Amino acid sequence: MPDFKLLFVCLGNICRSPAAEGVMSHLVKEAGLQGRIHIDSAGTAGWHTGKHADERMRKAAISRGLDLTSLARQVMPQDLTEFDLVLVMDEQNLRDIRAINPQGVNQQKVRLFCEFCTEHDEKEVPDPYYGGEQGFEQVLDLLEDGCAGVLREIQTRLV
Question: What is the pLDDT of residues 96-144, one digit of tens each?
């Protein structure tokens, strides 16, 4: 049983959140904490449930030595109970999470991902789905920055 459970959330769970899961899994493995930290991702919409990450995101991730193997799923209200930290990619994801959780149960666990970035000033991780290859690279840059900050935060909780 892991000591800490982390969930990344975006809209469809095929670009940003599975990439965050891949980046974070890589960092956790490098830190030797893979048995202590469980990482998952989900989307606020269920359009892509059961599908792999977008091919363009997988290609960009592979070029950085990351393997995105998760299958898309939709976020569920019980995720807010089961996970210790739920990181959303943008303000719309935050509103969507609040909509499935109108009582605000465990809302303090839900935070914007970019709060953990130290090298970038963006407030949201942009959705690269309708853009070109550079958008996927920009997202990975943000995710690498923020995931390093997330890992530092989790490590302080694991002590």
Answer: 999 998 888 888 999 999 999 999 999 999 999 998 899 999 999 999 9
The fold of the 4-158 domain, in CATH, is Rossmann fold (3.40.50)
For residue 117, indicate whether it is catalytic. Answer: no
Question: Which phi and psi angles does 23 have, rounded to 5°?
Answer: -60, -50
Per domain, the residue ranges of the chain are 4-158
Is 127 a catalytic site residue?
yes
Task: List the catalytic residue out of 16, 114, 145, 147.
Answer: 16
Determine the pLDDT at residue 159.
82
Q: How far apart are CA 13 and CA 70, in angstroms?
A: 9
The residue type found at 43 is G
For residue 41, give the H/E element and its range.
strand 37-43
Residue 18 has pLDDT above 90, yes or no: yes
Helix (H) or strand (E) holding 99: helix 91-100
pLDDT at 1 over 90: no
Measuring CA to CA, which residue among 104, 105, 122 is closest to residue 113?
122
Question: Does the annotation count 16 as an active-site position?
Answer: yes
